[in-house]
Amino acid sequence: MNKKISSIFFLLIIFVSITLAYVYFTQPAADEQNYSGSVEDVDDDQLSDEIDDTFLEEDDEIEIGEMV
Amino acid sequence: MVSISSLVLADDEEDQDEQDFGDEPQEQENETQEPEDNETEEEIEIMNNSLGAEIRLLQLEKALLKNILKGNMAVEVIKGLGYNTSELEDILDDMEALLEEVKTANTTSNESVQIFVELKREAKNYTRQFRETVKELLDDVKINEIRATIREMVNGELQNYSKRIQNRIRHFNRNQLYRLYGIIGETNNSFINEYMNGNITLNQTKLQICKMINQMTKEKKYDVFSEIKEENIKGKIHAKYSAENGHGKGKGNGRNK
Question: Is the whole-model pTM more than 0.90?
Answer without folding.
Answer: no
